[in-house]
Here is the input.
Amino acid sequence: MSTINISEDLRNLLYSIPDIDVKSLLESYQKPIRQSIRINTLKAREEYVLSMLRERSIELKKIPWARYGYWVVNDVNVSNTLEHMLGLIYIQGAVSMAPVEVLSPKPGELVLDLCAAPGSKTTQIAQALQGEGVIVANDVNIKRIRALSSNVQRCGVINCIITQVDGRKFPLWAKGFFDKVLVDAPCTSLGIVSKDWSAAKKWSFRTSERLSKLQLSLAISGFECLKVGGIMIYATCTLSPQENEWVIDRLLANKPNARLENIRLEGLKINKGLLEWQHNKYNPELERCVRVYPYEHEAEGFFIAKIVKEGDS
Ligand SMILES: C[S@@+](CC[C@H](N)C(=O)[O-])C[C@H]1O[C@@H](n2cnc3c(N)ncnc32)[C@H](O)[C@@H]1O
Here is the structure.
């Protein structure tokens, strides 16, 4: 078994989730996540940027599930390139591109990104909107909003309004307003441990449970901001059922007009959402959610749920 130092609670958690290959997961925690980028077509044509990168001998391979996503095959640090500084590319994890691909924003739509900083997914949404429609990118943390603002500018996004409020308050002024909502919730980050080992060392059931209450409030808030017929994606980069399936199960119990939809993305390995964990049974619809484990694509681990708002209850 691996030498990685993980908390007792985390060890117990991992062995409590039947479809996780714990050995592979712990090994993956010790390897860096594969570098990947998104070509930002708000600034230049895809082919043009690809040819600039080829001239720098940067080898790329298409990510099948992300329209403008590429793995960086060779060992170069793309963050030092002119293309990155100019916003022609955005460095973003391959699986982190999946939630917005599932959300599938269309030009002209009104989109709320409730927990937006530092803006990987906001700028990806902006790219899909092609300058038509509006994104409201919100976060509660001012330091992170500075990074969001800088990324939005660097990527040439002109149709984004940045707000700083507690996302739980958003329905007070935006109930039923948005076509699409993304809730990329704060979480215990078990899908990105190789970037930050402290997540594994200090992980506890207590913190996970505390966060799950905030996550549920944010999910309910995001759902209330949707128009009837609108789509919300709830995503986390963690593996804990308490922060994933439990949150969506409670959302469905709270909102009878919330329905889960299946998720399918080309080339992305998909494990179904859990229907049971630690003697708690979840709504059978939960199997429509998706769990992606870090060892499956040498990338981040993610949980994604696609929720549709039916006629108001
Ligand atoms: C997983 S990160 C978001 C990453 C971002 N979506 C991206 O792709 O770059 C979660 C964010 O939620 C924010 N957050 C935490 N509590 C919040 C709250 N009550 N309301 C709004 N945002 C909150 C954090 O500041 C953090 O930036």
Q: What stands out?
A: The mean pLDDT is 96.
